[in-house]
């Protein structure tokens, strides 16, 4: 049984404490993700998407409940979990090769094999020949591919992607969605994508989790139909069955936004 369950969130709640007091960011989240599954988190700003990724990555500890990877509680960040963000966080004074090798270097695994793997990854991500260049010489899409190479180099079993495409132009974004989807599938990795873009969520994932806020909770889950799961995102977007999945998400999120603004209006100064 535990073999198939890569990630489990059991009744997870998180509270942020600061000068203004304590606030409940996510409440009683129960979620199981199978090994090799691609899941997206969507929902309005502030519903706890990033908080959930931080809890899964071991960057935060839940106030209540537990986070388990391969049946073991997560207690600290580990190279088994790769994290990719909207910003590429490349070091401007390091070459592309050095940037891509950084994850391995930090975890003390920059061996000859590691360096060869980084080289292979850069080739795979169509960055061959850029190794001795610097980040400012590359386009936004290329830089995000370097960040992806750096994340993949440590061979994580799980990939956490927090809006990695949202700063990119539409056509670059579509290409990168395909590339990321393919590299993750090829490696059999488990992935969680956070995105504002419902079409992206529907095109990339096997299952979309719709979150609501105040505090963050799971509203519902939308499964992609079988015939859409095995084809890459660009092809999925063109498939006859895609629109129905998108409409379902759209109506749910629309409803959530309406509810929230109504509550805020009624709440007046208490909101
Ligand atoms: P999302 O990624 O879905 O936009 P977040 O996980 O960033 O949501 O935030 C969830 C909730 O927790 C929000 O109400 C946000 O204001 C609050 N929050 C996030 N980070 C902090 C923090 N460091 N301190 C206090 N509150 C925070
Ligand atoms: Mg966020």
From TrEMBL:
The keyword Nucleotide-binding applies. Residues 7-238 form the ABC transporter domain. CDD domains: ABC_NrtD_SsuB_transporters. The keyword ATP-binding applies. One of its GO terms (molecular function) is ATP hydrolysis activity. Keywords: ATP-binding, Nucleotide-binding, Transport. This is ABC transporter related protein. It comes from Paenibacillus curdlanolyticus YK9.
């Amino acid at each position: 049984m535990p073999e198939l369950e890569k990630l489990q969130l059991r009744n997870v709640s998180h509270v942020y404490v600061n000068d203004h007091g304590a606030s409940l960011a996510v409440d009683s989240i129960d979620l199981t993700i199978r090994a090799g599954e691609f899941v997206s988190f969507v929902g309005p700003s502030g519903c706890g998407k990033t908080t959930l990724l931080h809890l899964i990555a071991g960057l935060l500890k839940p106030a209540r409940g537990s986070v388990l990877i391969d049946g073991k509680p997560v207690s600290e960040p580990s190279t088994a979990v790769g994290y990719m963000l909207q910003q590429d966080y490349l070091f401007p004074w390091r070459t592309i090769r050095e940037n891509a090798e950084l994850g391995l270097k930090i975890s003390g695994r920059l061996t000859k094999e590691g360096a060869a793997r980084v080289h292979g990854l850069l080739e795979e991500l169509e960055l061959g020949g850029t190794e001795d260049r610097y980040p400012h010489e590359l386009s936004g899409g290329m830089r995000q591919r370097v960040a992806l190479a750096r994340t993949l180099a440590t061979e994580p079993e799980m990939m956490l992607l927090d809006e990695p495409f949202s700063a990119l132009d539409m056509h670059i974004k579509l290409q990168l969605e395909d590339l990321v989807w393919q590299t993750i599938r090829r490696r059999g990795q488990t992935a969680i994508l956070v995105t504002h873009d419902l079409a992206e969520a529907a095109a990339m994932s096997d299952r979309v989790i719709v979150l609501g806020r105040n505090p963050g909770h799971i509203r519902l889950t939308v499964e992609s139909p079988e015939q859409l799961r095995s084809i890459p995102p660009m092809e999925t977007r063109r498939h006859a069955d895609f629109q129905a999945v998108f409409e379902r998400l759209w109506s749910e999120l629309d409803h959530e936004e309406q509810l929230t603004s109504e509550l805020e209006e009624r709440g007046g100064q208490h909101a």
